[in-house]
Amino acid sequence: MKKRVDDLALFGGQAEFASARPIGQLAIGPDEAFFNQAKRIFDGRRLTNNGPLVRDLEDSLCELHQVAECVSLCSASLAIMVLLKLLAVKGRTEVIMPAFTYPGLPHLAQWAGLTPRFADVLPTVHTLDPASVDKVASQDTAVILAVHQVNSLCDVAGLEYVAGKYGIPVVYDSVHGVGCTCDGARVGGYGVAEVFSLHATKIVNGFEGGYVTTNDAALAEKLRLARNFGFVGQDAISQCGVNGKLNELHAALALASLESVGEVIRRNRERYEQYLRHFLRVPDCSFLRYGEDSEWNYEFVLLELSPAWKMSRDDVVAVLRRENALARPYYSPPLHLSPHMPEGLPVPSLPVTEQEAEKYIQMPVGELVDEDTIVRLAGLIAFMHDNQEDIAGRLAS
Ligand SMILES: Cc1ncc(COP(=O)(O)O)c(C=O)c1O
């Protein structure tokens, strides 16, 4: 409990939290579920190369997402790279994507030999604005990489309409959409394909890993070949490939993790509601709300400070981080204004993206954040609010 500004860790006081309170999910699930799955690996002596656990995992994920095909890979990043490479319309060079998203995406376009082009997002929901995509699209556009956001899924109909005009496919990065619904249908079957991550910070945890869902059997077959060097049978090569396989151990953790997805989402919602409740006493701030009309996974908690604050959003984050609360500015700076913008490209003007990137603090969440942490975070922000002029003055000097 801070009594004086000098008690803040940034000014030499003791950190509020003895260990880090991160922003990732970090849900592991019961040990027993994992060890039971892992035992199958040793019993069967099959460690990788499309083994039985990978196949079981893919079947379970088809059920979760209500799709015909699931192809696992060693990360969502590799899945996106391979998909872009396979789906880009031949002779065209550009991928349209949002700039208000995960910083790795432009690199993935570049690995696939394509150039990222950023389009603007819609306010508050933060998904690609179809009208902006239409403005950016041209005969050079090879594919659209749309990103479902944690609080809102893409305007699928709007994006498909624009894509139809240019004869290009839409791929959805659905890494933050596990368990969410779009117009009553579960995320997984939209566009040509959707991509998910099994990274340890995600809702379904496979240490590392990723997967693609699709209802296109021919595309699924190409992905299966691509993740295994393009091998058909013993030695024949059918297409350009890479080693993108998920191994059996990672599939074991992901299978175990799938057993508790519902529970993880329930706990996320509980944490989000605790934030809403305990921050009621903190003036001049609000949270980005999850709508009641759809199902969400409540993966992120996004705090917005009102313009009345004398401390900047980034200074509040800096204070929190020194207290071991690993908050961060949400998707800021946006990609077109960051080092992730490929050199030599004209920097577009994306007014909504730029405005939204100023707003939110991504607050600590996941299994290492309990209600006591949330109460203490509310206390910290209230303390900063009460002493904001003093703190801002010291930071400026
Ligand atoms: C929106 C989004 N896309 C892609 C990725 C990459 O996932 P992976 O770590 O499995 O490569 C991430 C990772 O956090 C992400 O947030």
Describe what this molecule looks like in 3D.
The structure is a single chain. It contains 13 helices and 15 strands. With 397 residues, it is an alpha/beta fold. The protein has 2 domains: 228 residues, Type I PLP-dependent aspartate aminotransferase-like (Major domain) (Aspartate Aminotransferase, domain 2, 3-Layer(aba) Sandwich); 136 residues, Aspartate Aminotransferase, domain 1 (Alpha-Beta Complex), CATH 3.90.1150. Strands 1-9-8-5-4-2-3 form a 7-stranded mixed sheet, sandwiched between helices. Strands 12-13-15-14 form a 4-stranded antiparallel sheet, with helices on one face. It has a two-stranded antiparallel sheet with strand order 6-7. Helix 9 packs parallel to helix 12. The protein is globular and about 70 Å long.
Strand order of the largest sheet: 1-9-8-5-4-2-3
- Tell me the CATH topology of the largest domain: Aspartate Aminotransferase, domain 2
CATH architecture of the largest domain: 3-Layer(aba) Sandwich
**Average predicted confidence as pLDDT:** 96
Reported for the largest beta sheet, the result is: 7 strands, mixed
CATH class term of the largest domain:
Alpha Beta
TL;DR of this structure?
The chain is an alpha/beta fold and 397 residues long. It contains 13 helices and 15 strands.
Topology:
Layout: H1 31-44, H2 52-65, E1 69-73, H3 76-87, E2 94-98, H4 105-111, E3 115-119, H5 130-136, E4 141-147, H6 156-166, E5 170-173, E6 181-182, E7 185-186, E8 193-197, E9 210-214, H7 217-226, E10 231-232, E11 236-237, H8 248-258, H9 261-278, E12 285-287, E13 302-305, H10 313-322, E14 328-329, H11 351-356, E15 360-362, H12 371-386, H13 388-396
Parallel strand pairs: 2-3, 2-4, 4-5, 5-8
Antiparallel strand pairs: 1-9, 6-7, 8-9, 10-11, 12-13, 13-15, 14-15
Helix pairs in contact: 1-8, 2-8, 3-4, 5-6, 9-12
The site of pyridoxal-5'-phosphate has 13 residues, from helix 3.
